[in-house]
Amino acid sequence: MKPAATHARPSFRRGDEVTLVIDRLAYGGRGVGRIDGYVVFVPDTAPGDRARVRLRRVKPSFAEADLVEVESPSALRTVPPCPHFGPCGGCVWQHLGYADQLRAKESIVRESLAHLARLRDVEVGPILEAADPWAYRNKMEFTFHPDGTLGLHRRGAFDQVAPIDACLIQSAEANGVLRVVREWADASGLSRYDARDHTGLLRQVVIREGKRTGEIMVALIATAPAVPGIRELAGRLTAAAPRVASVLLGVNPGPSDGLALTTVAVIAGRPYIMEELAGLRFRIGLETFFQTNTAQAERLIEVVETLAGVGGGETVYDLYCGVGTFSLALARRAGRVYGLEIVTPAVDAARENAALNGIGNAEFIPGDVRRVLPDLVSRVGSPDLLVLDPPRSGAGSRVMRKIIGANAPRIVYVSCNPTTLAPDLGELVGAGYAIRTVQPLDLFPHTHHVECVAILDRGALPQPA
Hints:
CATH 2.40.50.1070; CATH 2.40.50.140; single chain; 21 strands; alpha/beta; Rossmann fold; 3 domains; 7-stranded mixed beta sheet
């Protein structure tokens, strides 16, 4: 028998410059080009670009490169409207029209299912676009830098910040708040946190906005609880922006911005703002997880409700329930809803939100899904519907085995990462579930991120070999 043909990897080395044509976009935002079948990932490119690139990482099956020059630009390219695009690490696709971004995201969902889980015949619905791809974010985090800058991290650099005067994916009101904070910080003379030597006082400013209620929260994050002049800042904010309902001081003395706050103090107003979503009211605190695109989050709930098909009397499990976004929406028709969440403050918030909305048939349980789920099944039996919305890393094999063991006839899987959704769905299919459809939604215009809702029904279990 003749051996299968193999493609030898071109003999490239780090630092080599090559010219290639970009044929598509990959999850992560980079363009994909090929040299005799050898894959090269290149940021800041568009399908159709002929680009000269410099290899910076060379592997047997692929390489990563930096863009040197676009020798012949793609017809898909457009002028980014934001003057900060490029150095800023926020948006990665402003050089593409919105329709082309949507096509790329839908393709990424299909490719992830096919290549990562061999799910090639799955029905993928047309992506649900945002009505307005600008000024959509209800939360932004801006970082102080020792050089006096206040802005967003530069792409790929934890210790560098691109100055941002105004961000086009947050509202004009939020940009006005950012301007007030910048002016106060410049006049205060207070030190800014240095991510390399871990010194300095001012770290970040977080702006949260209730898109439906109009309320705004402003939180200054510092390394110590004593910040001279912070009450003056609160006065400036409430005078300049009457919609500011909450001014907070959060303390993070640790080395990473991602660490939990040790304390949160109310400087003015309330410790939370109110928001409305799909006919429900929510209290949003500084550390509360809440979808950052309010308008598209409402469409996400509509999709989940429609696909779930809850008609009355069902028992529903909601895994990774957060503050109860799906739990409370589904509880309006279900018989009983059980929300599982490992973050205790989120569980407390979910219980408060249930009481706020007069919902008495939802129970929220703190703990690791892997451990709590089997106990819940033992206590109340298998659910009629199981919903899960895990973090970007996905649920993973150990949790998926517990979900399969829960024996729900229908599963709705909500995901913000198609590359982790695919293998998790593959496990469910292997256990006898059939995917009815996968519905992508764009909650994050101008980024590579894409939300998906998958609905699965239990079929005949696979027979042993």
